[in-house]
Amino acid sequence: MDQRVEKFTESISFDHRLYQQDIQGSIAHSEMLAGEGILTESEFRQIKDALLEIKEEIECDRFEFDFAFEDIHMHIESALIDRLGDVGRKLHTGRSRNDQVSTDFRLWVRDAVDRILDKIVGLQKAFVGRCDPDSDVILPAYTHMQRAQPVLAPHYWLAYCEKLQRDHQRLEDARRRVNSSTLGTAAVAGTTMSIDRTRTANSLGFESVMANSLDASSDRDFVLETAFCLTAISVHLSTWAEEWIIWSTSEFNFLDLPQEFCTGSSIMPQKINPDILELIRGKSARVIGNLQSLIVLTKSLPLAYNRDLQEDKPRLFDSFDTVEACLELAIPLVEKTKLNRSEIEASLERGFLDATTLMEYLIKKGIPQRNAHHAVGALVRGAMNTGKSLSELSLESFQQIQPEIDESVYESLGVENAIKSYQSYGSSAPHQVAHQIESWKTRLF
Ligand code: ARG
User: Fold this and answer.
1) Parent domain of 429
2) pLDDT at 94
3) Which of 346, 370, 403 is the last residue of a domain?
4) Are residues 84 and 113 in the same domain?
């Protein structure tokens, strides 16, 4: 082979990461071949022992990688043949690299999914862990990045728990389709050897056996799905990171980020930069890009295996590595960042966060919603002109606009009263939030 072709076509530079899964798959395959009488028991033993030896060598950095062998599958098989000669040459009976690649990748993705699932729970625990210490903090909630209504800080923490829960469910669901065996579909049409696919599937812990060899050897849905699940996580993390970058500015000053998770500037001595948050936001670009690449990669590929599919690994590896690293840093950031209570509290005076509660007070007095909305608009305008908050307006000024208003109006005004007035399921009402905190604690701890 021309050296340039060798260099162009190799995948060992990235698929060496599949060595463990490749060995695990080959042991299961050879054990099955022995069970079927295609290998003798002694041949299976020799193969298994040699494969475990090779694994050990790879792990101790004693294994020689040589670009003359295209991928991890060829490396391991040729090392086996070096050791066992013809016995080693029997391993590849009844399978092809096409099903081998897919099997190994599925095993790798399954483990990686489990690591991400764990880290999602870790981050959820960090958010839930903030609920009790911050139970008395009220935050402004925003729409259009304009101050909207007050919420309890735990309501804010749990919003991210909910998003992460859907991420968790999506990944768990995708995992079922990752966890299906393609081993033994061989190149494309199956094999004339009497292999037992159920047996290899069981010994590798797969939940099911894929039913159609043409489909199985070409299927990369599991790659697209997990890449999308990772993208959803990354997008959620980017939202959170962006919010905290804004909240940590001196203009907002809502947050004190832990110093050991910030960086300085080489020229401006006073700077404390939120680089970790910025990189979590920035790295979402690669995860989104990887998904795009994978969709384009698989689009229009005719059945079944095509060499293009080799390009799936670098993209998905990168998405897993990136999201795992982001989750790993998000956890301590959520645990260690402090809410700047005095600044947040002082800022609650601004933005008429209780205006919607006042409108609903009027509705309860029998005023139609559109009229109530209009009346509160007028009250807010008056308060703005005199530099007052709604709770500082006199009863007369309320009654001038809306005669039905009485003393009880003051029970709806101010952020604390506004919070206490919420009622609906899923709202920031204290009893609703307390109930949600309890239910998250039982689910996670
Ligand atoms: N290195 C290739 C991959 O990772 C193996 C391809 C095996 N099949 C083939 N017909 N060349 O996809």
Assistant:
1) 355-436
2) 97
3) 346
4) no
- Exposure of 231 in the CB half-sphere (CA atoms within 13 A): 19
Instruction: Fill in the amino acid letter for 79.
Output: A
Are the C-beta atoms of residues 11 and 73 closer than 8 Å to each other? no
N-terminal to C-terminal alpha carbon distance within the chain:
58
Q: Could you give the number of structural domains in the chain?
A: 3
Residue found under tokens 């004693």: 62
Q: Whose CA is nearest to atom 3 of ligand 1?
A: 310
Shared domain for 276 and 367, answered yes or no, is no
- Hey, what amino acid is at 226? T
Ramachandran region, residue 414 (left: φ > 0; alpha: ψ -120 to 50; beta: rest): left
Q: Is residue 444 part of a domain?
A: no
Backbone angles phi, psi at 151, to 5 degrees: -135, 155
**265 in catalytic set:** yes
Ligand 1 pocket check for 340: Cβ under 6 Å: no
When pLDDT is cut at 50, 70 and 90, the band that residue 67 belongs to is: confident
CATH of residue 383: 1.10.40.30
pLDDT of residue 349: 86
